[in-house]
Amino acid sequence: MSDPLIRPDLVTSSAGPFLAAAELTQSEARATSSHSHPRGQLMGALSGLVSVGLDRQTWVVPAIHAIWIPPHFVHSVRSYGPFSGWSVFIAEHRCAPLPREPRAIRTTPLLREAVRRVATWPGVELDPSQTRIAEVIIDELAASRAESLDLPRPDDPRLVRLTDALASDLSDNRRLEDWAAWAGLAPRTLSRRFVAETGLTFAQWRQQARLLRALERVADAVPVTTIALELGYDNVSAFIDMFRRAMGTTPGRYLAQESRGESAS
């Protein structure tokens, strides 16, 4: 069982300050089992990487990003290796203007600095100056744009079996037709059901799964060549091209930016 990140009443009760925050730095992986709480939670990474299991999706939160978890959403958390990050907990009655569904966002320097300031407070009612800083966090979250850092999970048992098999070996390069035969589906049926249940084509889902796994492995400082082979790429260049298109930079530069707490944009 991991030690509490923040005083429990600042997570489970709307009494006290309407917004509280805590920072965490650790040298080893950390895991929190499925749970929920009345307050909304904005969870951000400064260095390293954390994944969040939420509903039927897995969300990956690399450095300079955060995930918004509205009140009462059941979720689990896992970090990978050394990690530095933060969480903000917002009282339910202040969550009305915020996104109603979970959302991954790219954080701004203003948001990160405001969180850093709030994390030093003692967890009592906010004075007017503190309230203004807390309102900045809420405004920044309300104005944020969603980032594609999630991997939707289908409902159809045949597709669940297929995606579980694919996720367990992302180096498997079998075509959609081969996977359809393996799952006992017609290729057109598989293609149609995939889009209907995940919003992604089969190829898009596999690429998103590979990207999220790549972010995990990059955060663990695994060599790029090793990651490329694990994900089924014929050569390192093809993997780097995919990573650059998705993240706006190469894996090596991304890791360097992440360690310095910089944005890739």
UniProtKB/TrEMBL annotation:
The gene is nimR_2. It comes from the Bacteria. PROSITE patterns: HTH_ARAC_FAMILY_1, HTH_ARAC_FAMILY_2. This is HTH-type transcriptional regulator NimR. Keywords: DNA-binding, Transcription, Transcription regulation. CDD domains: cupin_NimR-like_N. Residues 160-257 form the HTH araC/xylS-type domain. It holds the Pfam family HTH_18. InterPro entries: Homeodomain-like_sf, HTH_AraC, HTH_AraC-typ_CS, RmlC-like_jellyroll, RmlC_Cupin_sf, Tscrpt_reg_AraC-type_HTH. It comes from Paraburkholderia metrosideri.
